[in-house]
Design goal:
The chain is of the alpha+beta class. The protein folds into two domains: about 30 residues, no CATH class; about 110 residues, Immunoglobulin-like. It has two helices and ten strands; from the N terminus they run ααββββββββββ. The strands form two sheets. Strands 1, 2, 5, 8 and 9 form a five-stranded mixed sheet that branches. Strands 4-3-6-7-10 form a five-stranded antiparallel sheet, with no helix packed on it. The longest helix is centred in the first third of the chain and has 18 residues. The protein is globular, with a radius of gyration of 19 Å. Belongs to the nematode transthyretin-like family. One of its GO terms (cellular component) is extracellular region. It is found in: Secreted. Its main location: secreted.
Amino acid sequence: MKCFHLSIFVTLCLLISCLTPSSFGYNDLFDIGTAQSVAVTGILTCNGRPSDGTKVKLYDVDTFDPDDLMAEGFTDEKGHFLLEGFETEISDIEPKLNIYHNCNDEHPCLQKFSIEVPDNYITEGKRSQKIFDIGKLNLEGKFSGQQRDCFN
């Protein structure tokens, strides 16, 4: 009976992997989908000064599997960042920028919030042709969806 349940489990796993090739990294292996890229820039501040060393990550949001990390980095001494990344997907990518900070906050876990990138900044191919500029953002404020993230 255990072998029968294992067989069903393996069959289900194979079926799921065929239905969601991106979740197992098969898009690149089988050249399925289209490469789509996006770039985001901005300046982050805290208490009127540049927020240097602030972590930023660019993701493609996925519904049925973990989000795909497209790029990550940190702000420079002027609070500036520029991220560019791409993902190969069958459907359109849904890019978002995650910002992780501790502005006016001494808690060991960072504050995290996301900014969705508008669709018109998505470019077909591995190099972005447009850059989404979030402008100058003061991290002292509270942002919609902001939460603590200890495992970023």
